[in-house]
């Protein structure tokens, strides 16, 4: 699937640039439509803590040791920017723009990575597929944990593909790129260390394959420069790692006193994180510590658009067939061809396999594995490109136009669905699962609480209708974190309380079935999409 001389390559590249700019413009225009989510204040507190640490350090004090398990590439710059520009929107609004930029980095990287492997046409389709992947696109605007990792992870994979595509001679600028990309990825979440693991693994595979061929041809070990080759790759790995850990050191004060123990303890904390909550999936409430093995595959199959699933299955099947044919014939392509392709497939399969083996505590659907979606989409786009090239070889150019039109239609139908769900694209379910109506009561929907913004706006308008211009303070009861609703309520007309006594309203999303807490309450309004309620507003007034 190497790029070929194609007179239409510049056209596909211009189309991709245009679509990327369109996504950027639409995204920046709509970031204000997304409400505050459950985890944002925790990230704000982490950013403030890191900022205070550096202030103390720069003032000559000995600040308290930082023990956060989250590096600060997202938290720290956001805290600094908010401190310098406090009146430029709320911290949450700034964070949504910042998160969106990480998401766009992921789309850009998926485009260029796939174009390097399959040409500009394949790159265009990777860009389109990822930008119209509702679970990725929706999270881009509010997720302060997982979208930064997803964006920097695929950026690191792009660097690795660019590096190994230059085999056997790798310029040092690509090693620097890997170091920077890996450092940025680790500085979002420590799982970004995978970029360096992949670098070491595939460098080792390359060296082993290279000298294995020489040995099978009858050459002696002593006649081969394998030792100098290994030294060179070790030097490259050390240089990339040094750059990466220097960036991590800047954004993660936890490692300042003891880099190795700090990082290993944080990694162990993340892997063995204990959460006693339950998650709704497949019609059952499961303990997060005792989920069925198919939890993540279930969410991938039910929330990925069908055309991407089809192309992904095709791409994986073609990969297996190709490897088998190479093995039988013994005619393997050059390393600069097969290693980058193997790497991108491995980069989305390995984390899933590791999850099945390690069995960590996970919850919130695909949230913890959003970072595998960009490479997954790249594989699907490369599979589509393979089909198109087979049609080209068969001399059927009209079929190419028809097939791309069908695929554009499929992506367009998903886009229409995303518009209907806006700004809750992340609650998308495909038709295999029965769509959002089929998922209601069976799977988690708005578990992040985005719909509280719309509920608050309705309440603001409602009290102005029943008490126009009045001075009465209305009390709103909630059973969980106040800030998701409080961020958007008129503070001069409302106060939020954990106690139902004396409250005028009760607001609840559907998570944990909190909305069923007061069956005697009168329903005033429900935030809905496609007729499915996401957040309820009840009257508690007697």
Distance from N terminus to C terminus (CA atoms, Å) equals 69 Å
Q: Which class of secondary structure composition applies to the elements?
A: alpha/beta
Q: Characterize the biggest β-sheet.
A: 5 strands, mixed
Give the strand tally: 7
Across the major sheet, the strand order is: 4-3-5-7-6
Instruction: Extract low-pLDDT stretches.
Output: none
Q: What's the Cα radius of gyration? A: 25 Å
Number of contiguous helices: 19
Mean pLDDT: 91
Order of helices and strands: HHHHHHHHHHHEEHHHHHHHEHEEEE
Task: Give the DSSP E fraction (strand runs of 2 or more residues).
Answer: 5-15%
Shape: globular
What is the helix content?
A: 55-70%
Identify the notable features of this structure and list them briefly.
alpha/beta, two-stranded antiparallel sheet, about 550 residues
SSE map:
Elements lengths: L8 H22 L9 H19 L16 H10 L6 H28 L1 H12 L2 H6 L6 H19 L7 H15 L7 H23 L9 H26 L7 H13 L6 E4 L2 E4 L7 H9 L2 H24 L5 H24 L14 H21 L3 H25 L13 H5 L12 H15 L7 E4 L5 H4 L7 E4 L7 E5 L12 E8 L2 E8 L3
Parallel strand pairs: 3-4, 3-5
Antiparallel strand pairs: 1-2, 5-7, 6-7
Helix pairs in contact: 1-4, 1-5, 2-3, 4-5, 4-7, 4-15, 5-15, 7-8, 7-9, 7-14, 8-9, 8-10, 9-10, 9-14, 13-15, 14-15
